[in-house]
Structures are given as structure tokens and as C-alpha cells.
Amino acid sequence: MTEPRTMSDILAGLDSPGRGLTFLDSGPEPLSFAELARTTENLARRWAGLGVRPGDRVVLAATDIRELALALLAAMRAGVVPVPAFPPLAFGKGSEQVRALARICRAAGAEVCLVGDHSVAALQDAGLSCRIGTLQDLVAAVPGPPPPAPGPDDSALLQFTSGSTADPKGVVVTQRALAVHTRALATALDIDCERDRGVSWLPMYHDMGLIGKLLVAVVTQTSTWYVSPLQFLRDPMGFLRLLSEVRGTISYAPNFAYGLLTRRVRDGVPGDLDLSAWRIAGCGAEPVRAQTLRRFAEVYEPAGFRAEAFFPCYGLAEATLAVCTATPGKGMTTLTVDADGLTGQAVALPTPAGTGRTLELVSNGRALPGTSVAVVDEEGRALPEDTVGEIVVSGDHLASGYHDDPELTARTWRNGRLHTGDTGFLHDGELYVTGRIRDLIIVNGRNHQPHDIERIAEQVDGVRPGNVIALAADQGDSTAVRIVLEPRSFPAPADLPRRVTLAVQRGLGVPVADVVVIPKGSLPKTSSGKPRRRHTAQLLESGRLTPSDRES
């Protein structure tokens, strides 16, 4: 039997009446996969009633995850291109979240933006470039004839790599790429729909939650339970209780979430918590830290959690989602390397612990089925194992490019390979990620461009415009932001760091580790005036760039 070539074909073929998806924020009753097929077929015909045709883009920014999932799957089935986006939680004047949504609507060229019922009135004057509606508008729309089935090379999804960026990049994923990728992930995870049960709190505007926990569940018809990200943050232990109650076997989270769950245990693990069924504890979307996972395993071992369940992985939106994953049941593999060799030279040799400045790296495993991973030098030539270079990827599941940006697409996808902009090396066939060529900052699994953070900090009274640098700051289990700036005058106002911190936290929801105020003229820049972020980080680490309350 020929395998389906599109997500639309897969959705039409769903037939299980006994397994399904349970969206607990909407109620305890599951939506069976057979019912999901009927519901998405009905909704697919109603896009025409909203004036949306196959190929049109629709931004989905609802907070109700059941509504978002149904609208997204119905769009894929109709050949309409869904654009998941971070739903605004703050609507006040000048809300950065609303501005970010407006930028995505404009960049996508969207026909309509579907939001929650409570958001419609608040967004009417937000300057969105498209109509605003709700899922109920789709449900109530007059159905048209069955839409033509999309082809394998038609766009199935438009993923924006960062909701915060002033110049958002939309990654175009085809129907074929999604169908191929979800099946490859199912193989890598060794999913058995009779045995496995998924549990997720991950946001569906992020590729790990959307593809890894929704689309893979749909493709394999594996029962999965969902709670909202806000519910997880309010009650992290409640999520583990859900895993225990439904005997969940597969769940993913960024590194910070494992740290959060570890810190929430104050008086010992509850005696009725049973995590013994959890066989795939995925960790990705941000750097995986060995110490965080070890502490989690130690704390939750009394509840039956096994360290062998850890499943580190590496991916990016431009590859649809995953590139490399660990082997199920193998757990976490680490390698201790010469930390100076990773930054100053090209070779990363395994180094005995305790000799020189070392760094423990976590393996991200091997390439997915049908995927090839290589490490190359600046000329694109393959490098041998244990040598740091740029990670490049090839395979049938790569995204096809950036929406409406042929120049950036040509720079990123070259000669059939995706140049990730990430650095790493291969050791015994497994990938170890060491850093980034680009300056992207990943905080709690979400991408942020430094210049967006810098732009907000520059608007604070007392900050010298054009003289702010945002850097990633390691905080153990997670990443925050360190801001380095020059003030307009010396001495700088004593409350300037606090006001900058509040502005960034309110504007982007990004945690700020500290704000470093330095003398005018000391911020590292190129000859053309561009910020030298990596050089600034090196100067701070070495102590050669220090705060001052007066001009030098």
C-alpha cells in the first residue's frame, strides 16, 4: 500500500474510534481520530465561507489549544496554509505581543487572523493587516464544495522562527516534508499506538509542540493528552500527576522545564506519583544541560522515573523540526571536552575531567531516518569527526525556504543542504552542538533576536541610542539575557538597570540576568558601527570590560 504523500491524505485516512486527543482545558472527553477526520473534513469546506481559498495564509493565535488544533488541521486538509503565532496575553497600549502578531500577519500576507473570543475586541484597533475572526466564525461559515486535495509540493505550514523579531522569517514547510518528517519521527521514537500515550503542555505555535506532539500523534493515531502552557507554568506538578494518571509514555520539554520541576519538589516526591511508564523524556528546543537532567532523574527516581528515558534531540524550524535524536532507552550520553578548544581552535578532543577548563556536552544522537548530517568548514568542505564546524543537513523533510525572501533562502539552502548557522562536531557518529554562528538567543525554548531586545532597551530614558548589546546569560537550568549598555550621561541614574530590566521583561517576557552599564565609547563595535556581540561576551568573561559609574 502506498504511503500518503500529504498531511491532507493522512487526515482523511484517520479511522480509530477508540484512540484520540484529549484537550483537558476544554473538557475531559477525548476527540477520537475517526471523529477528528469527520470534523476537519467539515471545517475544511467552511474556509471558503470566510473568503479563504487554497494557498491563502491564515494566522492562528488562539489560546484555546483545542480550537487552534482543529483550525490548523482543517486548514491543512483544505490546502489553506496555517501560520501558528504566539497569542497576545497583554493588550495594553504599545503591547509588544500585539505588535509581534501584527508583524507576523503582515509578513505572512495573511487573509485572516483567528484568535480567542476574548481577544477580538482588544485587537480591533491593533493595526493588523488582515481580518480578525474566531474559530466560531469558521464553524458558522457557509460550507463550500469539497476543496481540491493539496499536492505534495504545496505549502502545508508557515512557521515563523521568532515571534519577537522586528523582521520575522517565515519558514515554508510543504505537505510532503511534513508527511515524511512525522513518519521519520515516529520511527525514531519507536511509537506503538497501542502501547504509547502522549502528554504535552508545549505551545502549538512552537514546532516541538505542534509537530512533535500534535502532528506525530495524528499520523500514528496515538492517544495524547494536552494542557495549556499557562496551566503548566501555574502548576508544574499537576502536569506530572497527569503523566502518572494516564500512564504517559512520551513527553517532551525544553531543558528549563526539567529544572523547574526539580525545584518544585520541596518535601519529597508525592508517594502516589508513578512515572515508571515514561519511556521517552524528550529534551530539546534549547541547549540540553547534563546537570539539569541528572538532578531531575535523582529527584524523581523514587517515583519510578528512569534516567534511560532521557531523549535529547536537536532540530530547527528550517528542518521542519528534528534533525538528530537519541536512541530510545539509551538515555543521555555526554562527552567532556576542552572548552578553550571549542572557541579558540577547531578541534574538540575528548579531555579527562579535571584537566584544564573543560565542558560537558550532551549528545543529540544520530540523524533521523532519511536525514544526513555533516560538519563543514567555511568553504563548505566536510570536516572529520571531533572537529568543530558548521552543522549542515540534507534530506526530504527540509523546509523549502523562507516565505517571500529568495535572497535569504539562497544563502541558507545551498546545493541541496541546509546551512543551520549552528556549530558542532560529530563523535562516534553522534552530534554535539557547541554554539551558534548567528547571534540568536534561545530563552525557555523561544527564539529572540538580540536586536529586538536592544531596541526595547534603547527606548528607556537615559540609555544612549545605538549603544546596547544583548547577550545570552547562562543561569544553570535555563538561559536569560544580559544587557550591556552605555548611558546618555555619567553618572548614570541609579535606577537605570532596573528600568531597562522592567522594559525588556514587559515588552518581550524575557528574563534579564543583569544590566551592565559601561562608559561611553567602550561598547565594542565594527568599523561600520555594528555591535560586536561575541567579542563583548569574551571581554566580559575575561574581566576586560567592566561596569563604571564615571567616564573613563
Automatic annotation (TrEMBL):
Residues 27-403 form the AMP-dependent synthetase/ligase domain. Keywords: Ligase. Pfam families: AMP-binding. Residues 521-552 are annotated as: Disordered. The keyword RNA-binding does not apply. It comes from the Bacteria. PANTHER family: DISCO-INTERACTING PROTEIN 2 (PTHR22754:SF32), DISCO-INTERACTING PROTEIN 2 DIP2 -RELATED (PTHR22754). Belongs to the ATP-dependent AMP-binding enzyme family. This is AMP-dependent synthetase/ligase domain-containing protein.
